[in-house]
Design a protein that fits this description.
Blueprint lengths: L2 H30 L1 E8 L2 E6 L2 H10 L2 H7 L10 E8 L7 H11 L3 E10 L1 E3 L5 E3 L2 E5 L2 H13 L5 H8 L10 E9 L2 E10 L8 H10 L7 E3 L6 H7 L4 H7 L15 E3 L9 E13 L3 E6 L7 E5 L4 E12 L2 E2 L4 E9 L4 E6 L24 E4 L2 E3 L2 E3 L2 E4 L6 E3 L4 E8 L9 E6 L4 E11 L6 E2 L4 E5 L10 E7 L7 E3 L7
Helix pairs in contact: 2-4, 5-7, 8-9
Length: 499
């Protein structure tokens, strides 16, 4: 055999011997190694234990108070807890109870529940839309679903309307009536199972959760004890609410006509809905068209002649509309689908004599104030408290974008511009000064057709209806004040002009 071959054989024999020794050492090591479990909390080592099941059992058995409070069968380690299996030869094994104590001192235990995430937005004082996410912990899905139902039902004057929709049992519209076409939340709401720290707020009561959804973080709700003479409307106004808001806060009452008993305790907390519930309505209604009182002068009659020569007849127009209701408030943008005259309006005509007067005749529309829009309108919001602020106008909708807006009376235009700065929310708006220091304001207009200093008559077209500024739909914001608005003038209900 060559020397080279002998060297190779020796090397192979040597390497094989080394490997056999190493295998024997490793085999002996693992034969003598112990199985243990390294416990971590928030990335830090807490201890090495022999039995992980024993640790879980101790955690669960030591937390009877938590289980009783939340009505659960099991309590779990903190969210930062982790445990890994390892083999150890000479490391010291910790007492399981001492590891439990360290965990209890350092962090909070958890229970199984559900995390609800509401992806919402809100508008700041500058009109900017910013994120406003809400995260809620609930003990189970059923509790959240029941709380949501309580929240939703609060915004229905007639609960039956909601349940008929949910049960697919709505009555078909024959002549007049309304049905819900769809309902939804504006926000993206998700719910998923999770381990929740018992130190966090976990809702276990559907009423408490529904109250949060209605009132927000208001921890102390305001209460009022009814006195003699109180009504739903008077209590609401005295607490800067409108009647509908008071009814939402007190579902025991179903109508503004409900009687209050002396001694009843009423919730007067301002509602602050945390989510936005919307339902869309298909509505068919009959709207009365009130006749105008016209005066005709007859030069052939004596001056003291005064006689109704044509009786007035109230007309009826059948309107088919679609609109949204958001958190109990009708939307500003009503879409008119159809308009049908059921009974033709007939104006009342009074004939007066004008003998000995200058010749000629004219038509008197009656009264100093005219309505600022076309017929087929609907008042979507009145002069009232709304979300804790006074709505110092009425909102008129239903006649559509680009429909005419008229001067309510004779006067001179003092403002005609697109609102800027603190007035940006008005959008395009017009202010007219009238006799006796009255002012009328017309806001959210799509276009303006008058200019400052221009004299206008009652019925002069001053622009068209739109949704400029802070507006959720096409409508007219119509306000009336004694004194110039925003310069010391006092607003009052515009409907008082027509009584």
């Amino acid at each position: 055999m060559k020397i080279k071959d002998k060297i190779i054989i020796c090397l192979i024999s040597g390497i094989t011997g080394v490997l056999l020794c190493m295998y024997g050492f490793v085999d002996k090591y693992y034969d003598n190694a112990n199985t243990a479990y390294q416990v971590y909390l928030n990335g830090e080592k807490i201890g090495l234990i022999a039995d992980k099941d024993e640790l879980y059992n101790i955690i669960n058995s030591q937390q009877e108070t938590i289980k009783s409070k939340y009505g659960v069968d099991a309590v779990y380690p903190p969210n930062g807890f982790n445990i890994e299996k390892k083999l150890t030869y000479d490391e010291k094994i910790s007492d399981t109870k001492s590891v439990y104590n360290k965990i209890a001192d350092l962090d909070d235990f958890t229970i199984k529940g559900y995390v609800v995430t509401i992806k919402a937005t809100e508008e700041n004082d500058d009109g900017e839309i910013i994120p406003k996410d809400i995260v809620l912990n609930v003990i189970n899905k059923e509790l959240f679903e029941k709380a949501i139902e309580r929240f939703v039902v609060a915004f229905f004057e007639d609960e039956e309307m909601y349940y008929n929709y949910m049960n697919n049992d709505q009555t078909e519209i024959v002549d007049t009536g309304k049905i819900i076409e769809t309902m939804y939340f504006e926000e993206d709401i998700t719910i998923k199972e999770a381990y929740i720290s018992v130190k966090e707020k976990i809702y276990t009561d559907e009423i408490e959760l529904s109250q949060f959804l209605l009132f927000g973080e208001e921890t102390e709700q305001k209460k009022y004890t009814v006195k003699a003479g109180d009504t739903i409307t008077s209590v609401a106004e005295n607490h800067q609410l409108n009647a509908k808001e008071l009814l939402i806060a007190n579902p025991i009452y179903t109508s503004e006509e409900n009687l209050l008993a002396v001694g009843d305790v009423v919730n007067t907390t301002l509602i602050d809905p945390q989510i936005t519930f919307t339902y869309e309505v298909h509505s068919v209604t009959d709207q009365e068209q009130y006749y105008e009182k016209k005066t005709v002068y007859d030069n052939t009659k004596p001056a003291d002649f005064n006689e109704i020569t044509q009786s007035g007849v109230v007309g009826i127009t059948r309107l088919t509309e679609k609109y949204k209701v958001t958190n109990g408030e009708d939307s500003e943008g009503i879409v008119k689908i159809a308009e049908e005259v059921i009974i033709e309006k007939v104006d009342q005509i009074t004939t007066k004599g004008r003998r000995n007067y200058i010749s000629g005749s004219y038509i008197d529309l009656g009264g100093d104030w005219g309505w600022p829009t076309n017929s087929g309108y609907r008042i979507t919001s009145g002069f009232k408290w709304r979300w804790g602020k006074m709505h110092t106008a009425i909102d008129i909708s239903g006649t559509g974008r680009g429909s005419p807006i008229y001067s309510a009376s004779e006067g001179v235009v003092v403002t005609a511009e697109n609102g800027k700065g603190s007035f940006w929310s008005l959008g395009k708006y017009v202010v007219i000064k009238h006799a006796n220091n009255y002012y009328t304001e017309y806001a959210h207009m799509d276009s303006i057709s008058v200019s400052v200093g221009q004299n206008v008559s009652k019925g002069t077209k001053i622009g068209t209806m739109g949704d400029t500024g802070r507006s959720t739909g096409v409508h007219l914001h119509f306000a009336v004040s004694v004194g110039e608005p925003y310069k010391g003038g006092q607003f009052f209900d515009p409907l008082k002009l027509y009584k």
